[in-house]
Amino acid sequence: MNTDAQWWPVALSHELRNTPLACQAHHLPLVLFRDENGRVAALPDRCPHRFAPLSAGKVRDGQIECPYHGWRFAANGRCARVPGANLTACSKPLLASLPSCEAHGLVWVSLGAEHPQTSPVAPAEQRNDLDTFWITDHVRCSLQDAAENFLDGFHTHFVHAGWIRHDRQRQKIIARVRPLADGVEALYSEEGKQSGLISRLFEGERGASMGRFRLPGLAEIEYRDRHYGLNLLVSAWMTPCGEGQLRLFARIATTRGLLPAQLKRIVLRRLFRVILHQDRQILERISANQQRFQAAPATPLDGPQDLLGPHIRQLLKHGQPLVFAQRELKIWL
Questions:
Q1: Residue 156 and residue 55: Cα distance in Å, rounded?
Q2: Angle of helix 309-318 relative to helix 143-151, nearest 10 degrees?
Q3: According to the model, what pLDDT value does residue 202 have?
């Protein structure tokens, strides 16, 4: 996949205010700030003078000021001030600004020189009014492993035993796997309420559920009731940020109803923190174990229950839509 031609989320929009914000997309450390019009700007987090981190500086009049000698840079990377010197207009920017934008509550950057032709990947569209909140995290693992983990229902009986499912209380359900224009989706039907605590607290009767992955790095889980109303939608955008590191931006959405949004946020945040901690533990153990065997790397051995993992690997490898006929199977989940 050509990572340079994609939009990658690097921060929550509400985090970026009147001070610089350090972040990283793939190999490149960045500094984010807002220009004089409040628009997002993204520059390499390194002053070209003596390489001080610009994220440790200040934003003045929509320009970022280096903390070392006070050099200032505009959103386009041009030097606007050198204290103690008569600055003449630069013929070209001293820093290469990155395409950036805001969408879906996130700040996005592209590593290419031009704006990508497509828009940042959006969460699944909903007709109802939603209560939403965010959880962010850093995980030492690959995008591939994190996406597969997020969409794999078969690990929940063990990694999240009691919280989501129990191994001794499986249900026979129908799974339909189909390609999307930019990803892959599994639709699950004939599944009742899950046996874990989260389902018992926040779900009525289960109608259908979906798990999907969309390029370049959005994984979603969606639960609906028997009237096809939304119970829960978790959208997780993932951005590689350095060697073996991943930044996660998870938006949890529920249908707005009688239960106060603040109460739902408090309870769900605590529950999902537990789930994310458990997933981070197993993913980092997998990553560490892969490093132990890096001299003799192996291809994952897929079983019949690996519905989306092989497709996710193909999508990330080639960065192109998958072509296959929808398939249907019965599984014990």
A1: 39
A2: 150
A3: 63
pLDDT above 70 for 203: no
Tell me, yes or no, if the pTM score tops 0.85: yes
- Tokens of residue 10, six digits: 């690097």
Distance CA 54, CA 38 (A): 18
Q: In percent, how much of the chain has pLDDT > 90?
A: 72
Q: Tokens 């959103």 map to which residue?
A: 75
- Please, what is the angle between helix 261-292 and helix 143-151, to 10°? 130
Tokens representing 224 are 């609906």
Whether residue 322 contacts residue 311, with contact meaning beta carbons closer than 8 Å, is answered with: yes
Listed as own residue / partner, the contacts of 54-59 with beta carbons closer than 8 Å and 24 or more positions apart are 54/20, 55/20, 55/21, 55/22, 55/31, 56/20, 57/20, 58/19, 58/20, 59/18, 59/19, 59/20, 59/33, 59/34
| CB-based contact 132:251 (threshold 8 Å) | yes
pLDDT band at 258 (very low <50, low <70, confident <90, very high): confident
Tell me: pLDDT of 253 over 80: yes
Contact by Cβ (8 Å): 221, 210? yes
